[in-house]
Amino acid sequence: MSQQKPLIIDCHGHYTTAPKALENWRNAQIAGIKDPASMPKVSDLKISDDELRESIETNQLKLMKERGSDLTIFSPRASFMAHHIGDFNISSTWAAICNELCYRVSQLFPDHFIPAAMLPQSPGVDPATCIPELEKCVKEYGNVGINLNPDPSGGHWTSPPLSDKAWYPIYEKMVEHNIPAMVHVSTSCNACFHTTGAHYLNADTTAFMQCLTSDLFKDFPTLKFIIPHGGGAVPYHWGRFRGLAQELKKPLLKDHLLNNIFFDTCVYHQPGIDLLTKVIPVDNILFASEMIGAVRGIDPETGNYYDDTKRYIEASTIVVGDDRYKVYEGNARRVFPRLDAALKAKSL
Amino acid sequence: MSQQKPLIIDCHGHYTTAPKALENWRNAQIAGIKDPASMPKVSDLKISDDELRESIETNQLKLMKERGSDLTIFSPRASFMAHHIGDFNISSTWAAICNELCYRVSQLFPDHFIPAAMLPQSPGVDPATCIPELEKCVKEYGNVGINLNPDPSGGHWTSPPLSDKAWYPIYEKMVEHNIPAMVHVSTSCNACFHTTGAHYLNADTTAFMQCLTSDLFKDFPTLKFIIPHGGGAVPYHWGRFRGLAQELKKPLLKDHLLNNIFFDTCVYHQPGIDLLTKVIPVDNILFASEMIGAVRGIDPETGNYYDDTKRYIEASTIVVGDDRYKVYEGNARRVFPRLDAALKAKSL
Questions:
Q1: Are A242 and A253 in contact (CB under 8 A)?
Q2: CB atoms within 10 A of CB B300
Q3: What H or E segment, with its residue span, contains residue A157?
């Protein structure tokens, strides 16, 4: 398989371009928290297949074709998850709507999109309440992964660390269904943290360190996390993290964490990708762009889109030969076994 | 000057090795918050010059000589600042004690240590209350900089962003006295954040982004911040930050921030230092090790101390010739004008 041109699998795409009706419905729902009489029904949201098709064909799919990626693992818009808004019921209704839309996109474009689910998390609410939505998404919608928010408070960090047993019901279901989680926060409602410039990266670093200080993966040896945005600050400070693990009498990071933790390639310049691929073993790196996302412009230093991360991999002198197959395809098949099964069912 | 061997100035050292009596006094002070009858007096703390000498000679100075650095900008132990404990009076007494100790070290070893001050910050208290301690440290103790904690709550991030006018009284004094601030948090009391593995790096990234989204340096064109720990996640994600500035219609980062923001070299492996020095202009990089600090071990991959950052600069093929003078000495003299003046007063 590695001799052929690899499938280019982008493991990190959000539905950031959904028809405006979705945002309008969400705003009505938020207004309905204070004024229950105005709370919209789920059935008030009407988005046709044609509208979905257009929103994808003119955006993500257009760029995928231009840039040469084949398949995107597609989840609801991260910044719109906003788990801090309202209570569990609000999050539950909202997650169900967003997950259904990603499912419909995957049905309209089965060769190009496969869904990953957001969870109906809510601050202070037992994560186990998310299991029905998780199971529906896996069993009925063919989701191959989930996005897990380590801070549903939106920048106040009031939940316990990911190593806390409060999260274990989610992990048990992940293991049971053979799905990984991308650890991904949502909008910051703390004025200290810019959402995509600080909160996202901080959460990545924080999640890694929560795993490092714990023995979570002794309890769940097959649990898999993808740390997005190139792992936050982690690869850049790999020496620091190796040294901290040593101080804490933990095993070498490759044994302690790298059977379970993977990094995506959402790093928007060549030197960053080169650092990532030099420092982190190739088996732990999954291709991703997070387009159309936080950084949509063209880099004046290169003339190319910042988030056209495939160019950085193509220009890499570190990720070559069979390693390129791993980053583009092989690792995604291994980390997302349900994706692998779905591809094999199509003889891919 | 650049033709001679440069002075090796380490701009980031904390007094992590103070005699045990200091920690005992602090513990008594913390106990005294609940039990005022047991509150110790400042005069209860007795540390002799010999004790100070020994704590430095067997630790920082020993390593400075072994590793070949000449002068450390020396401030109280960052994790012990713990501004979240008690109220302003508690912080005020504690800061005065810690700053006096660093001053005494600088008097005992005037060729090797020059002090930078911690501030008596306290959550929810007007930063202007810190000015008397700041001015005492500059005028009486010869401090050349301060450490400014953007989150005195210790991981709850309840203060406004650094761009908020609440911080301006501090900035006015910094400009008046020509001193920079290292933006440095203290211990995390939020279970989500490991202090040195997550909170420190997150704060670095957060502070940079707070500056990026604001026009702080239009109001204070000569204000200078050092972002420690290699700038947190910033250099690794430099493309992301350039792209975010572009989306926000800000000037290029070199014009928007790099007249005012500097990064230290506390990055504990060669690939990280190489990334930093490749991406960030050499004029914005100051040599530092933060020894003896968070990562005290020996890297089994190199056989050298993780925090012996001079080795990474010496091995660099990017920082060569006159650039090495800038990183070791020239930039520190420019960013810390009072340090430059103190050196010149000694004909250095």
A1: yes
A2: 9
A3: none
- A228 Ramachandran zone, left/alpha/beta (phi>0; psi -120 to 50): beta
Classify residue B118 by its DSSP letter: E
pLDDT reported for residue B3: 55
At B19 the three-state DSSP class reads: coil
Interchain CB contact of B53 with A (< 8 Å): no
- Position B172 scores a pLDDT of 98
What is the per-residue pLDDT for A2? 46
DSSP string, B9-74: EEEEEEETT--HHHHHHHHHHHHHHH-GGGPPPGGG----HHHHHHHHHTTHHHHHHHHT--EEEE
Q: Is B24 on the interface with A (CB under 8 A)?
A: no
Q: Which residues pair with B148 in a beta bridge?
A: B183
pLDDT in tens, A112-147: 999 999 999 999 999 999 999 999 999 999 999 999
| Interface contact flag, B240 A197, Cβ < 8 Å | yes
- pLDDT tens digit sequence for A64-113: 999 999 999 999 999 999 999 999 999 999 999 999 999 999 999 999 99
CB interface of B with A, residues 206-235, below 8 Å: 206, 209-210, 212-213, 229-230, 232-233, 235
**Cβ separation A241–B197 shorter than 8 A:** yes
Question: Do residues B180 and B339 make contact, with C-beta atoms less than 8 angstroms apart?
Answer: no
Say whether pLDDT at B185 is over 80: yes
Is the per-residue pLDDT at A179 higher than 60? yes
Best to test chain A binding among B188, B205, B248, B264 (most A CBs inside 10 Å): B205
* Residue B1 reports pLDDT greater than 50: no
Locate A21 and state its tokens.
């009706």
Secondary structure of residue B249 in the 3-state scheme = coil
The Cα A161–Cα B203 span in angstroms is 18
Prediction pTM value: 0.98
The answer to whether A303 contacts chain B (CB < 8 Å) is no
Averaged pLDDT of chain B: 97
ipTM for the whole complex? 0.98
What local confidence, expressed as pLDDT, does residue B2 receive?
A: 46
> Is A156 in contact with B161 (Cβ distance < 8 A)?
no
Q: Cα separations (Å) of B128 from A246, B180, B185, B222?
A: 41, 16, 18, 19
Burial class (CB in 10 A: 0-12, 13-18, 19+), B124: exposed
Is A201 within 8 Å of chain B by CB? yes
What is d(CA B193, CA B154) in angstroms, rounded to the nearest whole number?
10
Angle between helices A200-212 and A238-247 (to 10 degrees): 30
